[in-house]
Design brief:
Layout (H helix, E strand, L loop, with lengths): L15 H12 L7 H25 L4 H26 L7 H14 L4 H14 L14 E2 H5 L3 H11 L1 H16 L11 H23 L3 H25 L16 H7 L3 E2 L3 H6 L6 H6 L8 H7 L8 E2 L1 H4 L7 E3 L4 E3 L27 H12 L14
Parallel strand pairs: 1-4, 2-3
Antiparallel strand pairs: 4-5
Helix pairs in contact: 2-3, 3-4, 3-10, 4-9, 5-9, 8-10
């Protein structure tokens, strides 16, 4: 299954094309979706999810504590449905583009996520992850130590709040799925298909709320679905966070950035218990997913087991992943993520060792600092990883 020449993720730009061909040869046998497996995964997960919601509705007349307890496995099933939508977004769940779009759009209503808008921003994430010159859209905002030091006090406070675990996992799902996905004002007006997806999803959600009000009752629906969505949203955000925000992850300036190094060094292998791999659709094999996003989730494990080249990556267990919560800033000098307390001391002025003062133009928030680069990269980002697995 292995190619004759082992892939080299550290290849210099002149060798990047050869490295890409080598990785493509290695991963090509796993890219093709299998219709029977895809349909079984979709139908079985959807049926179990519907049964979970029905059981929660039934439990409302017994005990709301029981309802909340049932929300946990039901949320796990929603995470699994999200992974199916995720695969549809990469074109890896079905061979048919129309089937991927149709299923992804329907699942987007359940997940409160407009499919085409999410697909495009996620493609930008795949094409730019780990590139210090291309950040913000579709990724967890990460500042370097120097950038954080140059912020105003208000800017530092805002960044600390953003990176706070309570804000990220508790308030984050409310903002992400309740506000941002309903009104994604970061999307350019030229993204017509993406905006149409937002409008269609919002209209479908409004129809669901009206139908619920006429049948089971709007209050009962919210008592069931809100806790499921909050748990699933927190789990999804944590998964996305821990897959890239670990100490020895990969960040590099644009001229030296490498797609394959970002995939292997900037994406973790989240070695979860088997049952959690099932609920999360094997997304823990995240380094493989970033190398070849067209591999269906149900083939990632086999790809990992059959190719030793894919074993030499950062492995995180469930307990080890908890340490990732402390990492907040990228230290370019040390080449690793650090916490706020672990950042390097201020740069000394050449004259006498006094800390270098930030210029007025540097005293801005991260979003202002990078707004121009983000806008410039939105439309061309996906093409950057052409032929390497990012759609």
């Amino acid at each position: 299954m292995n190619p004759t020449a082992k892939p080299d993720p550290t290849a210099r730009p002149r060798d990047a094309a050869a490295a890409a061909r080598s990785w493509n040869r290695l991963l090509e046998p796993y890219r093709r979706p299998q219709l029977a497996r895809s349909l079984f995964q979709l139908v079985s997960t959807a049926v179990l999810f519907a049964a979970g919601l029905a059981t929660m509705l039934w439990s409302l007349d017994l005990s709301y504590a029981l309802t909340l307890a049932l929300a946990v496995p039901t949320a796990g099933l929603l995470v699994r449905l999200f992974i199916i939508q995720h695969d549809c977004g990469h074109g890896s769940f079905f061979s048919s583009r129309r089937a991927n779009s149709a299923v992804g759009s329907v699942l987007g209503v359940l997940i409160l996520t407009p499919f085409h808008y999410w697909r495009r921003t996620h493609a930008i994430h795949h094409a730019t992850h780990g590139d210090l010159g291309r950040r913000d859209l579709g990724d967890v905002m990460t500042l370097t130590v120097d950038e954080y030091r140059d912020l105003s006090r208000a800017g530092r406070l805002g960044y600390r709040l953003y990176r706070n675990l309570f804000v990220m996992l508790v308030l984050g799902p409310i903002y992400q799925f309740g506000i941002k996905h309903r009104f994604p004002f970061d999307a350019p007006r030229g993204w017509r298909r993406e905006w149409a997806s937002v409008i269609w999803t919002d209209a479908a959600l409004a129809a669901v709320l009206v139908a619920a009000g006429q049948t089971i009752g709007l209050g009962r629906l919210l008592l069931v679905y809100v806790p499921v969505m909050l748990v699933a949203g927190a789990a999804g955000i944590w998964l996305f966070y821990v897959q890239h925000q670990f100490e020895d992850t990969y960040w590099e300036q644009s001229p030296e950035w490498s797609f394959h190094r970002a995939g292997l060094e900037g994406s973790s292998f989240y070695d979860l218990p088997r049952v959690l791999h099932w609920f999360t659709g094997n997304i823990g094999y995240h380094h493989i997913h970033h190398l070849a996003s067209q591999i269906p989730n149900y083939r990632l494990r086999r790809c990992f087991e059959e190719n030793p080249e894919l074993h030499q990556v950062t492995r995180l267990t469930l307990r080890e992943s908890l340490k990732c919560a402390r990492y907040k800033l990228w230290d370019e000098g040390q080449g690793r993520l650090v916490g706020f307390r672990g950042r390097a001391p201020a740069r000394a002025a050449e004259s006498g060792g006094a800390p270098a003062a930030a210029t007025p133009s540097a005293r801005r928030t991260f979003k202002l600092r990078h707004r121009s680069s983000v806008r410039a990269g939105r439309d061309r980002a996906p093409s950057r990883a052409a032929g390497t697995g990012a759609e």
